[in-house]
């Protein structure tokens, strides 16, 4: 475990539901925070620096749980030290950082995966299966939005440009990745945004075009609590998912038929499925996940770059 914030604690809850998953060490920026996390979760070794964790030869895989402004630095450090890496979403601040991380994984022959937990949820897998089986005909449109009202703090992670703040990278990566999963590579994109006083995006509305004229209507916000629903719409029906960023249910709507609700409860809290995917890939000696491979993560990173270019948001990291 690299990082000891909220997401790290939530990840631990999911990981503990996976047989064979053992957390051997935690690394933080200080000895005190590392020891506190280790004591909370009964972890044997606590490291006072990320470098010490990366150097721990008793660790197979590092989960990077830091804010995304540090993903590139932390992941490259661990990959070069010989550790496999599961890195929280978004993989990096921009496509240049994502590409450098992927290049490092390739050179070091290490596993690297963006922790897009949506991909691995059983309900998402069921939705992909229904689409593949033609249950809703030919897919023509995707709608997906996510948002919450967050207290404005100009120095806080969500609103500070130097920390790559804004709605798009914090939560907007979800609808972009969901549309990419369903539609494939985008052929065009438009975007509009409202900005916070610090200049980062606080709301973004996007439209994307996929192959064959398919469309995606996507949105994200840290201003408003947007209803968390996504729809995959085809020529003969649709699939609706609530809490779709890591869903536990879906409703299949077939033309002329009653809605068909389907439940897929989590064993823990949803993080367990991405842990299982890492295990599957490593046992098969894979360096990429077929459900979230490097090309897909890079494609998403490039899309996020394009959106920021269209709405006029840039970060100090873009100049490095």
From TrEMBL:
Residue intervals of the Gfo/Idh/MocA-like oxidoreductase N-terminal domain: 1-113
Record-linked InterPro entries: Gfo/Idh/MocA-like_OxRdtase_N (IPR000683), Gfo/Idh/MocA_domain (IPR050984), GFO_IDH_MocA-like_dom (IPR055170), NAD(P)-bd_dom_sf (IPR036291)
Gene3D superfamilies found in the cross-reference section: Dihydrodipicolinate Reductase, domain 2, NAD(P)-binding Rossmann-like Domain
Source taxon at top rank: Bacteria
Stretches assigned to the GFO/IDH/MocA-like oxidoreductase domain: 125-239
Protein keywords: Oxidoreductase
Record-stated family: Belongs to the Gfo/Idh/MocA family.
Protein name: Oxidoreductase
GO molecular function: nucleotide binding; oxidoreductase activity
Organism whose genome encodes this protein: Streptomonospora alba
């Amino acid at each position: 475990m690299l990082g000891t914030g909220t997401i790290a604690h939530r990840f631990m809850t999911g990981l503990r539901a996976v047989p064979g998953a053992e957390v051997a060490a935690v690394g933080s920026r200080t000895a005190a925070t590392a020891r506190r996390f280790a004591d909370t979760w009964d972890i044997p070794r606590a490291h006072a620096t990320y470098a010490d964790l990366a150097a721990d030869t008793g660790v197979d895989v590092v989960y990077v749980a830091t804010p995304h402004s540090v993903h590139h630095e932390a992941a490259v450090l661990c990959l070069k030290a010989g550790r496999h890496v599961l890195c929280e979403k978004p993989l990096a601040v921009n496509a240049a950082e994502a590409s450098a991380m992927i290049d490092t994984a390739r050179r070091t022959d290490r596993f690297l995966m963006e922790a897009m937990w949506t991909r691995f949820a059983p309900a998402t897998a069921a939705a992909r299966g229904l689409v593949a089986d033609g249950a809703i005909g030919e897919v023509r449109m995707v709608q997906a939005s996510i948002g919450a009202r967050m207290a404005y703090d100009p120095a806080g992670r969500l609103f500070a440009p130097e920390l790559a703040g804004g709605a798009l990278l914090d939560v907007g990566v979800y609808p972009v990745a969901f549309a990419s999963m369903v539609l494939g590579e985008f052929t065009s994109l438009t975007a509009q945004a409202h900005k916070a006083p610090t200049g980062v995006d606080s709301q973004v509305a996007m439209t994307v075009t996929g192959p064959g004229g398919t469309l995606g209507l996507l949105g994200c916000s840290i201003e408003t609590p947007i209803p968390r629903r996504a729809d995959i719409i085809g020529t003969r029906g649709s699939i609706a998912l609530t809490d779709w960023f890591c869903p536990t249910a879906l409703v299949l709507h077939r033309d002329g038929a009653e809605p068909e609700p389907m439940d897929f409860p989590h064993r823990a809290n949803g993080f367990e499925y991405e842990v299982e995917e890492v295990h599957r890939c490593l046992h098969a000696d894979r360096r990429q996940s077929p459900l979230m491979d490097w090309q897909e993560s890079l494609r998403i990173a490039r899309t996020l770059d394009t959106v920021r270019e269209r709405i006029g948001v840039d970060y100090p990291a873009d100049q490095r």
